[in-house]
Amino acid sequence: MAETPNSHSTRSKGLVIAAAVAVVAVVIAAGVYFVGMGDQTQTQAASRADADVPMSELMEAGPLEDVVIGDPDAPVTIIEYASMTCPHCAHFHTETFPKVKEKYIDTGKAKFIFREFPLDILAARASMLARCAGPEKRMALTSALFESQQSWALPDESEAMDKLLGIARQAGFSKESFDECMADEELYQNIVKMRARASSEFGVNSTPSFFIDGKKLGRDHELEDFDAILEEDHAGAGDKTEPAPAD
């Protein structure tokens, strides 16, 4: 039997409703996961909290590809685990990271790797947005999200997502590409896996957390705290000049 315009319209509406229900189901499931994983995360991380981790373990391929900032061949590797809704992470990226970058990354002494450790669903969504921007724009959008954190990291999820959409538009997203990114269940699950792996294998239990060539940085994250490890444990790192021959 031929399909009438009304039946076609009804079918289209049905598909839209089905898609909306699927997205809601994913969000609800995600919420249950994040609510339920708090105690588990703390328990798993407790045995390795504040412990150093071999670089061979830290650099094993994970659920998502790393984006390296700086010279890939730099002698020192700084790895950060951060949550996009964490105020301490925002403070680091707006106040301290530019100094670390100028002193160590831009000079070729160290390379920097940013990894996701979302503390809530909204943080995961913001991380997804940064990932969807592509490798070349990812850290620029990450920095913009940290700088504007107070404007979008809001208790009302609907308002928070509207604010994220506004930031996404400024980064070149359309409403359609933003929605497509937010509906990427595989990407979402891989970001969640990043957090789970960091917790269970590397003892990460707070954000931001840093490893410098596998050595766990303490609770303070100012430039002098990086200096204490980079200048004492890696004296001369990045100095590519040859020593003068002995007389």
From TrEMBL:
Q: Name the residues that span the membrane.
A: 15-35
Which Pfam families does the record match to this protein?
A: Thioredoxin_4
Q: Which UniProt keywords apply?
A: Membrane, Transmembrane, Transmembrane helix
* Residue ranges constituting the Thioredoxin-like fold domain according to the UniProt record: 65-231
Name the residue ranges with Basic and acidic residues bias.
231-247
Region annotated Disordered, chain positions: 228-247
What highest taxon heads this organism's lineage?
Bacteria
Family stated for the protein in its record = Belongs to the thioredoxin family. DsbA subfamily.
The protein here is known as Disulfide bond formation protein D
